[in-house]
Amino acid sequence: MPFIENFQEFKERMGCDCVRTEKGWIFENGGESDTQIHHDPPDDPAALLTRQVKFLRIKTRKAEEEFQQWQSNIVTQADYARHGAGPPPVEDELRVLERLRDIVFRLREKVDHAESTLYDLQGPSMSDRYREQRDKERAAANEIQQRAMEIQI
Predict the structure, then answer these.
(1) Rounded-to-integer distance, Cα 62 and Cα 21, Å
(2) Which phi and psi angles does 21 have, rounded to 5°?
(3) Dihedral Cα 99, 101, 102, 108, nearest 10 deg
(4) Which of 78, 126, 129, 143 is the most exposed place for a label (fewest CB within 10 A)?
């Protein structure tokens, strides 16, 4: 008999952070759920890392949006204060902005590291191999062209 659990039970069992996706939720450990059907983290390292990269990208985008919102609010409030229409932003708001900036930078580093590891696991994609081949062909054509231009009468 299949094991049935609701989303909250699944979330508790995953025991880690999750973010909303276009189709449901993805967890830091690679679990996924559409709130009805739940998927544990995959056993395959590449599939697991693919889900974790997706999680990190979404989390980074949300952190960037939060940073931009805070920054916009501070700038707007400062502009109002310059024109006598309210108090200036307080120092604490700048500290929050700096903390958010640091979070974004850390998340970006995690995304870069995870993508690099995933690339090492999967190897080059078809487009990467095509690009590499085109670069070799281009270099060879450039060399032949240069040599041909050196031959003068």
Answers:
(1) 11
(2) -115, 180
(3) 150
(4) 126
Q: Which residues contact 117 (CB under 8 A, 6 or more apart)?
A: 49
**pLDDT band for position 3 (50/70/90)?**
low
Average pLDDT, the chain: 92
Burial zone of 153 (CB within 10 Å; 0-12 exposed, 13-18 middle, 19+ buried): exposed
Nearest C-alpha neighbor of 88 from the set 77, 98, 96, 97 = 77
Q: How many residues does the chain have?
A: 153
Instruction: Please indicate whether residue 125 or residue 54 has the higher confidence score (pLDDT).
Output: 54
- Token pair, residue 115, equals 């993508």
Amino acid at 12: E
Asked whether residue 122 carries a pLDDT value surpassing 50, the answer given is yes
Expressed in percent and rounded to 5, the helix, strand and coil fractions of the chain are 65, 5, 25
pLDDT of amino acid 119: 85
